[in-house]
Amino acid sequence: MMALFALLPGSLLLLSPAAAQPAAPPAPERLDRVQVQGEAQPLSLAPGEGAVGRVVGAAELLRMRDERLADALRRLPGVRMAPSRPGQPELPSLRGMGAGRTQLLVNGRRVAPGFSLDEIAPEQVARVEILHSAGASLSGEALAGSINIVLKPAARQAVRRLQAGLGLQSGQPSARAQLQRGGSLGAGWSGDLVLGAQQREAAPRFEDLAETPTSLQRSEMQHHFRSRQLTLAPQLGWSGEGGLALGWQNRLEQVELRRRVDHALDTAWGEPPAYPRHEERYAHRRQAWRSELEGRWNPAPGWQLQGAAGVQGLLQRSDFSDQGSGLDDLTLGRLHERGAQASATLGWEPDDSHSLSAGLSWLTQRRTESRDQWLSGQAASLLTLQAGQRRLAWHLQDEWTLSPTQHLTLGWRQETLALDSEDRHQRLRFALPSLQWRWLTPLGSWRGGLSRSFRAPTLAQLQPRPFATTNNSALDPDQLGNPALAPERAWALDLQFQPRLGAGQRLSLGGFARRVEQPMVSLTRRQAGHLGAPRWVRMPVNAPLAWVGGLELELRWPLRQGLSLDLQATRSWSHLRGEDWRGLRLSEFRPLSAQLGLEGAWGEGGSWRLSYAWSPGGWTANAPGEREYSRGEQKLDLALQRPLRPGWALLLNLDGLLQRAPLQGHEAWLDGQHYRGESRGRAAPTLRVGLQGSL
Predict the structure, then answer these.
(1) Which domain range does residue 89 map to?
(2) For residue range 583-635, what is the model confidence (pLDDT) as tens digits?
(3) Rounded to whole angstroms, how far apart are CA atoms 409 and 411?
(4) 462-469 long-range contacts, Cβ below 8 Å, gap at least 24?
(5) Pick from 425, 498, 362, 497: which is nearest to 37 by CA?
(6) CATH number at residue 221
(7) How many domains does the chain contain in total?
(8) Which stretches within 556-690 are classed as H helix?
(9) Residue 411, SS3?
């Protein structure tokens, strides 16, 4: 077997279909015990702890009673919530490598397309596992790492919880409410029901400048959007003798979105565009659902069988119009996605120092999209797009406790991925070995991992049909998929050291390196257009090779009674290799980010947190002949929570203080011509007030 490489916290085993062993203490408690014991305590290492990463339990995750899971995640070490398009939720990112290279899992399984963190309330989470390298028991599509959100089972004790909140940003309101009720149903059964509703509105405004060889133009874009969401999440649980347990989780969701964008473009000199004034309107209604059944059984001492099966679906209807002087564009869309997945794992622990597991998993997804477009009342295109993927994987994993202070895990995962996009078919195979070790010394614990991972193209990246822009230019090109786009593959090395400190003190130093083969980047070029005349088009392609490396720091230190300080920082480097690619960076890359937090008590039972996040800006080159500029980010957030009476608490959040107005720039030298553009937004703090408690 090849040398393997990765890190899989022991808690990962508890999540994978082969691992959760009810008799063993949960992984987060194991890790915390090892980290805080003093020098006088004997050194010992429990099986399953040889992983690089971090496990955050519910108590730590909920200490500020956040009403949004994204707010709780942004405080975790190495996690950055990357902004998305206006009106879209933020996406988690690890190690500055972008959300597209960070794998998001729920209960150890890949999330469905279109998943949003807003679907999960923080109170539903048992723990969050930040896995810095791929391992055998979970999907290997994790170049930067994985964030695994483990949900609580159906409540056995009576739960009646209400959450409600109001928010205000730039004069636009938002509202959120959630009701949870659950408890024992008798005869080993328990049930839980969560009903949620939220509405958000926003009106961001952007001012753009575009300079080409033939013109100089300034424009304003005023966005107005409103979204409404209803969710219903029932679940059932049952447990019996012999470790037999079943869980059934369901989720129904309906989302309505309306967006309007007003474009006003003025030409300072040169030829004006075809449509200087136009208005885009977009609306969709989406229904999504999923249902999952999972169970475990201990057929004999030392043996455990775990399995899971689920189905999911999504139906979305949309309409888009773009109208202005001489412009009349109407497009009606329909999107249908459906999928199913299943997994099974058998684990065997012959003694306390050795365990084996083997598993099989399968997933299929199909996507059907239709776009019917009319220009000035005449049918311009009637498209039906078909795409899908199938995944089949098996894994083997072997763990040894070599001594009271040393632990070793070897794993092998084999994945087969079939991608279909219209007439293009790809069948990909990935051999993903992994090795992880942990060594306890009187000074602290050392962890290391070596692994193989990959990143597959999305179906949208493979789709060869273009999404056309109204005023096509080198700075505002059409978006086009590439059916020949190959997956990224990477070897990863991860190291971590945690010194043995006193209670409440934590220090973690880490380093990582990635050798990425065929990294995906985007190129802009001028080519024959689908509407006849040549047009500017941006599409993804593969570069030959990229190297990524970095250092990480996490510190948590009590200053005095009730007051503590935490610091997180990540410094990364990336370089593309190969002819025409030298001196370029990996796309979606952020080289430096840091966060400083201060927490303290507020009255009797209350608490406050002040956090400052910072990331520098500057120019970066991600493609030949092109470079981009970002002003960088800084923001100061204040969170307060205080009990009102037993079981109830008042929450107050003031986010985005001291933040700079966003500024993005783009410069390109294409076909011997120079193009320059920039986009300026506006920044305003967000105020949120919430109330939560037990009924």
Answers:
(1) 10-337+356-390+404-420+436-694
(2) 899 888 889 999 999 999 888 888 999 999 999 989 999 889 999 999 888 99
(3) 7
(4) 462/387, 462/419, 462/421, 462/424, 463/385, 463/387, 463/421, 463/422, 464/421, 464/422, 464/424, 465/371, 465/383, 465/385, 466/530, 466/537, 468/530, 468/531, 468/535
(5) 498
(6) 2.40.170
(7) 1
(8) none
(9) strand
Query: Is position 396 within any domain?
Result: no
Residue 251 falls inside a structural domain: yes
Q: What are the phi and psi torsion angles at 459 (to 5°)? A: -65, -35
What's the token pair of residue 143?
Answer: 């170049």
Q: Is there a domain that residue 580 lies in? A: yes
Tell me, what's the pLDDT at 45?
39
By three-state DSSP, how is residue 466 classified? coil
In 3D, which of 257, 271, 262, 343 has the Cα closest to residue 308?
Answer: 343
Please state, in angstroms and rounded to a whole number, the distance separating the CA atoms of residues 679 and 661.
10
Q: Which of 26-40, 104-118, 128-142, 559-573 has the lowest mean pLDDT?
A: 26-40
**CA 683, CA 686: separation in Å to the nearest integer?**
10
Burial of residue 384 (number of CB atoms within 10 Å: 0-12, 13-18, 19+)? exposed
The CA distance from 412 to 430, in Å, is 11
DSSP 8-state code for residue 241: G
- Flag whether 645 is in a domain: yes
| End-to-end CA separation in angstroms for the chain | 57
Between the ranges 25-34, 387-396, 529-538, where is the mean pLDDT highest? 387-396
- Is-contact 481 462, C-beta < 8 A? yes
How far apart CA 443 and CA 445 sit, in angstroms, is 7
pLDDT in tens, 133-183: 878 988 889 899 999 999 888 777 788 989 899 998 777 899 999 998 999
Do 62 and 46 contact (CB within 8 A), yes or no?
no
Rounded Cα gap, residues 170 and 216, in angstroms: 30
Distances (CA, A) of 148 to 13, 104, 364: 12, 6, 21
In 3-state terms, what secondary structure has residue 235? strand
